[in-house]
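ARCHIVE CARD
CATEGORY: sequence design from structure
SOURCE FIELD: tokenized fold
FIELD CONTENT:
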């Protein structure tokens, strides 16, 4: 099935799968914090994620961040353009507080990809900072934005959920950090470069413990939700210890990025939806 394989590869390369992962995290927030999901915000984040991820992955290599010569990347650019139009449409319906928060996250994403000054480096190139910037943006997008859009206050549970989400993204990034060892510049000083693969896996696995235990300090959490989170922790542990420098092609880009989608599905099942 060469055609299906090419479509699947394009689905991953065009950042559609990671956009679904972010969409899933938004709905996880809706369930765990018992808030309503703003439909326009959900789709804004979905389409906006496609644009941002493709810009970070491919735009920085293009001339003036726009002109691309590779046919495959040109197709991805068209997907990004269509996604941008849909993001603008859904963004029109968002409130001012949401706009302000989005502006901060977009600015952080921009600094991550583009040097501010001609001879300066982007945040992406600063040693050890890359994964923390990504984790902050994901946590802000999938927890803080839905809470603000729902008109809710930043309560204790919201703070705990935000820290949990930050930890989750850090854990999910470990397989990517190890996979990219062959391509990352030594200047990046990524975790595997600084501590080695084994210690990086230890750190990733260790982060699963506080990620789960933080459920116990929430003001409100159900037993079925706790079970769903425990299953996700087991899945994370298996993925971390299965991570190798030479990975199956779709291990990180599909299997690891599917964890938020699995989490959402488990929570839906736990709620009997």
């Amino acid at each position: 099935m060469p055609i299906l394989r090419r479509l699947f590869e394009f689905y991953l390369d065009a950042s559609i799968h990671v956009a679904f992962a972010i969409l899933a995290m938004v709905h996880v927030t809706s369930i765990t914090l018992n808030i309503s999901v703003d439909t326009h915000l959900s789709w804004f984040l979905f389409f906006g994620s496609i644009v941002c991820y493709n810009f970070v992955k491919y735009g920085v290599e293009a001339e003036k961040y726009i002109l691309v010569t590779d046919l495959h990347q040109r197709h991805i650019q068209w997907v990004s353009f269509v996604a941008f139009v849909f993001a603008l449409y859904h963004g029109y319906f968002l409130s001012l507080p949401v706009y302000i928060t989005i502006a901060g996250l977009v600015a952080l994403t921009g600094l991550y990809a583009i040097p501010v000054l001609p001879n300066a480096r982007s945040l992406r190139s600063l040693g050890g900072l890359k994964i923390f910037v990504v984790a902050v943006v994901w946590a802000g997008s999938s927890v803080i934005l839905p809470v603000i859009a729902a008109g809710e206050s930043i309560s204790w549970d919201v703070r705990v959920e935000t820290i949990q989400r930050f930890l989750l993204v850090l854990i999910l990034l470990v397989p990517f950090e190890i996979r990219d060892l062959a391509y990352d510049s030594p200047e990046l000083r990524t975790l595997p470069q600084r501590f080695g693969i084994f210690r990086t896996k230890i750190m990733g696995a260790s982060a699963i413990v506080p990620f789960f235990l933080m459920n116990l300090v929430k003001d409100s959490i159900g037993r079925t939700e706790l079970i769903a989170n425990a299953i996700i922790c087991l899945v994370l542990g298996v993925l971390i210890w299965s991570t190798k420098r030479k990975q199956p092609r779709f291990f990180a880009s599909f299997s690891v990025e599917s964890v938020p989608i699995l989490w959402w599905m488990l929570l839906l099942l736990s709620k009997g939806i």
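CARD ANNOTATION: The domain at 2-270 is CATH 1.10.600 (Farnesyl Diphosphate Synthase). The CA atoms of residues 53 and 219 lie 35 Å apart.
SHELF: design records, drawer C
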